[in-house]
Amino acid sequence: MSCEHARALLTAYVDGELDLVHGLEVEKHLEICESCTRAVENQRTLRSALQSAALHYAPPAPLKARIEDALRAEARPQRSLTRHRWPWIAIAAGVLLAAFFFGSWPIGSHPPQENLLAQEILDSHLRSLLPGHLTDVPSSDRHTVKPWFNGKLEYSPPVEDFAAQGFPLAGGRLDAVSGQTVAVLIYKRRQHTINVYVWPASGAADSSGGPATERQGFNLMHWTQGGFHYWVASDVNPAELEEFTKLLRSGAH
Amino acid sequence: MPHMAAAYNLARWLTRNEHDAEDVVQEAYLRAFRYFDGFQGGDSRAWLLAIVRNTCYTWLQQNRRPTAPLEDALSEAAAPGPGPEALVLEQVDRELLHRALEELPPEFREAIVLRELEGLSYKEIGAITGVPLGTVMSRLARARARLERAVAGRRSAGGVA
After folding, report:
1. pLDDT tens for each residue of B22-44
2. Residues of chain B contacting A34 with CB distance shorter than 8 Å
3. Is there a contact between B22 and A57 if contact means CB atoms under 8 Å apart?
């Protein structure tokens, strides 16, 4: 080993971060090189000096209380959130009244609970489109994505790649829907994103869920199959989305 | 408040000012609270320190403090040839060392703070600062070379080759 080569590794050697082979090579070089030996000693001296020079700044005592106050204030806006929810509750009440008078649910044929869920899925879809929110595990390999969920969820969602059919797998993520953590699979269609939410149906029978419904310019589909609830949200057109969900339904089992 | 000492120490060294460090740490804890969903388990100290660091840099940018540019690598390269003079622990001026660390470019300063003052591994430092292990190593090497020169410089006046 030349001096030049050794010098490049001395820092990691002093820090004990060098692998065994390189570590031994450096040691062999140090036996014959006075200059590098001195460089190692100097680095060790410098480390001791840094550690004994009282360079650590301690946080001032009031800072902890100040941060705790700020965190409490941060947690408090929950209340103003509840205030924002009032119009929704009013709308929900209107929907219930209309149902009472007209004998049917006014929005399509969906019961209100499903509407709330649809809104939640849509909100989550929109959030996922913000920079950095789409994937926790970006990978087109289902053998990477599927095991990633292990230990993070109490179930293992079916993961397939449909790249050959023009819907490549882009990754996975965890998200919260109705207060529970669910698996989300992300697929791409050209530049468009498709989010697939999967969670256990806890014994519910399979159901087709019907055609795509439109909400704020996005298309949503949902069904129950093989013990899992599926919700799909995307801005691809309904025809393509149905093509995709057909693949998903046949590929999943 | 978990990891408060490490968080404040890093912020204090990066902002070089106690009031700014307090603001940065508070902001970092608020961010951590807001983005806790993004925490995927693992080392919570590294996760928090990464937030502190990002908050520091955002803060430094907003306050337009010019940061010393990274010097060209050539002048830093560990040159073989005449060996360095031996450094003697008892003769190291602690005041000088403190000032030298404070004057390092932030990339070097944070590497030293995380390694020597917080005792983090290269892997953890790489995760916090978002650079590969090789870069962690070279930054530490160059930072130490500068510190060594700074504290040795007094005896061998103008001893920068």
Report:
1. 999 999 998 888 776 666 666 77
2. 83
3. no
